[in-house]
# Entry
Amino acid sequence: MNVAVSTSNFRRKKVKAPRYSYIFPQVTIRGPKGDVEKAEKLLTDLAKDKEINLYEDVVVAKSEFHRFLIGRGGSKINKCYKNRTETWNRVCFKIRENFDVRVMFPRDADEDKETIHLLGKKDDVLKVKKELEENVKQLSETVEKTIEVDTKHHKHFVSRGAFVLREIQEQNGGVAISFPKIGSDSTTVHIKGSKQCVESAKARIEEIVDDIERQVTIRVEIPSQFHRGLLANRGQKIQDLQSKHDVLIRFPERKQETSEESDAHLADFVTISGRDTKCEEAKADLLSMVPVTRVIDVPLDMHGSLIGRGGETVRKLMQDCDVYISIPKNNESETITVTGQSENVEEALQKIREKISDFEAQAEDRIVFFCLKNFYNVFTNLFRVLGFRLRSFQLVIDVPAEYHLRVIGPRGATVNALKNKYDVLISLPRGDDKSNQITIQGYEAATRACAAEIDEIVEEIRSMFTQEITVNAGFLPRLIGQRGKNIRKLMDDFGVEIRFPRDTDDSNIVIIAGKSEDAVYDCIDHIRADEEEYLIDHVDRNQYISTRVQDQPKVSKPIQVNNAPWQLDIGSAEHFPDMGSATPSHAVGGAWGGARRW
# Structure
């Protein structure tokens, strides 16, 4: 269902501010017929309800009369709330006892401060309007009354710039109050204004005079060492106390030196001035603010728990209760001191008692837990000893060494499965130890059951048909395959086991075992066929490979030096023609090695 507002054909009604601007649009409803009819009925009902409940009217009254129309604490108009909308933002009141009408008084920022708006059902609005107009009429009637006030009290009203007098006028519709001139003996005070305002101002003056006549001054003894704490934060606590009870509280002036005992004693007195009943109430509250000290015994082993990590617990307790808690150092004493206001101290002591109760309850739990823990440890050790003795049963069985690998299984899978299944320890020979013995340790029943299962494995191995074949050494890598892939496929296809013995010199032997003789022979035939195919491929491949001729190493010839100077003969006519001789002499050591004599 689409609801659209047609803005091309509407009427607008303008009303003087601050009233609403009403808009009456034409509403177009589009959709299924049934839904359109329901929507039309709903909108019509809403419009009728709004027309009935949204009647508006106004009442004009002077702004100083508004407080009297509202009454003290809203006694004449029951409930007050703030209605914040785009159009209105003012203090609103709703009369609930007799009428369902919203009464909206102008706010301080409004230009028109005299118009009061009424919103609600028409009949109720008219009745409320009539009642308010009657009240405004009564307030508008000017009367003048007199009251007798003793001259000794005149100064209280006109002193300090007539502060008290102006306050009475503001609270009572701006009535005119005239006191006699200072120095005259007249006691007559004239009050002029509306009837209700005059009566209210007169009652207030009588109340103030009565308070002055009943005013007393009492002294309260409070040790001077606590005065600083009471006046902390610029005396905020004392100011609040004075405002609460309408009294005046004065503390003695602090002196630098008090030599006389009488002066020291007078410094402890605080004076309270005001009405007698108010003074007593202020005295009680003031004494309750005086710090007191209480002590409580806390077990030494609980001090650490009360202090907390880094003093966190005790600091939080002091902040929450606004007290000071002193705990003896080094566990010197069980006595803990709490200082602060009486109520706060009692609250802190109660919390400490609760912590003591919790600590004692936890202590009982710790004792029970400690006993149970010791009891558990004793029985655990006992069961451990008994269990160790029961688990120490050993059984040795003989298994041929050639079957040990089968008992171990691939990567120890078979032996680990037996250990986990029966919760036993299985020890097999290691290294060069060729022993046939396998040791099983654990509970007797589990050990015997494990031994029985190992015997079944051995019997199963013995019952298998086994054949050994020899294959070409070059074919073994192809038979095994990458990471044993080919040999695992053969074992799965034929249901056999293929092993390679490790303790034989002949590395070309392959052992094939299986439960079925036919399966073993079929596997052997398959291996032989693969081997033959491998050998044929190997021979054919070698025919096309040229034989490499190995180069003969070259023999290095010795270096010969010919016609060197030391090889020439000085007596030879061929080498030295100018030095020929019939009897050539041969120098020892050649031409360069002759003996030299100097």
